[in-house]
Write a structure and sequence with these properties.
- There is one protein chain.
- Helix 2 crosses helix 3.
- It is globular, with a radius of gyration of 16 Å.
- It is built from 4 helices and 7 strands.
- A hairpin with a 6-residue loop joins strand 1 and strand 2.
- The longest helix has 16 residues.
- It is of the alpha+beta class.
- The strands form 2 sheets. It has a 5-stranded antiparallel sheet, with no helix packed on it.
Length: about 140
């Protein structure tokens, strides 16, 4: 699901891919539903391609979001993303105990929690990576 959700540098919020054009994609804002182009020269990244630094390497963002969802029972985060740095770090430590405290900044945690809340609000809370989803469907068949 998160393969189609994008972060575009310099633009607030998250975007969903609607269509593709030549040298651009058409995206829809999850904040207000407005559609517009995102061009090839903009820094565009899929949420499924983002990872959080840990002591042992990297942990995919989708796994961290799934941990938050489990902790919050599918509801919005119980912590305000605008909380102070120590509160944000303590919250992330509950969800991801081995996160790298030197390389994960409070602004990163704030952005992640803001994204999580937005995804929950807009009904985009299926954080299962496509590969695992396909494996699960194959096991059921």
């Amino acid at each position: 699901m998160l393969e189609t959700i994008l972060s575009i540098s310099g633009k607030p919020g998250l975007y969903k891919i609607v269509s593709q054009g030549k040298n651009m994609i058409i995206v829809e804002s999850l904040l207000n539903g407005k559609r517009g182009p995102a061009y090839a020269h903009e820094k565009i990244i899929s949420l499924s391609d983002i990872a959080i630094f840990t002591e042992d390497g990297d942990k995919p963002l989708v796994e961290v979001l799934e941990s938050i969802k489990t902790k919050e029972n599918g509801q919005k985060a119980s912590i305000d993303p605008k909380s102070d740095a120590e509160t944000l770090r303590a919250y992330l430590a509950e969800v991801l105990p081995d996160f790298d405290r030197d390389r994960v900044y409070p602004t990163d945690i704030k952005k992640m929690l803001t994204w999580y809340n937005l995804l929950i609000e807009t009904g985009n809370a299926d954080f299962t990576p496509k590969e695992k989803e396909e494996e699960h469907q194959e096991k059921e068949a």
